[in-house]
Amino acid sequence: MLVKIFLFQYLKGLMRAFRVEDLPIESKMLTKALDEAQRKVENYFFDIRKQFEYDEVLNSQRDRVYTERRRALMLDNLQSLIIEYSELTMDDILGANIGSDAPKESWDLEKLIAKLQQYCYLLNDLTPDLLRSQCSSYEELQDYLCLRDCGAYLQKRDMVEKQSEGLMKEAERFLILSNIDRLWKEHLQVLKFVQQAVGLRGYAQRDPLIEYKLEGYNLFLDMMAQIRRNVIYSIYQFQPVMVNQDQEEKSDKLVTNGRSSNQKPDPVGAVESSSSAASPQASA
Hints:
By secondary structure, this protein is mainly alpha-helical. The chain is 66% helix and 4% strand. It contains 9 helices and 2 strands, in the order αααααααααββ. Strands 1-2 form a two-stranded antiparallel ribbon. The radius of gyration is 30 Å and the shape is elongated.
């Protein structure tokens, strides 16, 4: 079988001409050729196994994403899932702007509050003095802000439900599914480039598969965090308004009030200082 697949054509012809296919092989030339064929077979199946290992990384991530998607589809009430998203997002904001190891004296609460209010306008009553009086440690600050974030979400939910019962649940489901689908597709494209790029790292005596697993895992964590942030931020920005349809239908429909900005502010990263600020024009 090795001869038929991997040996050179002239060796195949010689073996057929001398009818030595069923005889013990004593020729050094044939033995060497068979060794080369065996190496090709081993390399061939090694590449297949390596591809399977790459696929296993992707399959494990796919299972996690599909599990999250099924949660959004199967749960009748998404409130617990959204609260979970909000708590994890709040932890991300604190970690990016304060840090769990930072002493209380070095907390930049003004920067943190600016980011929190950019993330959720319902937290506009937060002040540095309020946070200092309520929290004496990072854990207390974390618990207090998660509690406030949960309260803000429930307040937003009640505001939307007063306009149309059941609308918030449909909006939450749509936001979760649309963000999962879009960011998962982008993640798959990125992983293709990563798999191609890590192959070159073998020249630096680094295992491409290990590099792929590490980078793929970090990219996956970033994608899941981005899904949560986008969902929570979009929920807070969701502003339903009543719009009259054609008079022939004689019915009202709730739609989302879109925004003109195409780029969402990052609700986690540190606030960037602006060198200029708009000021109201003085009247003559």
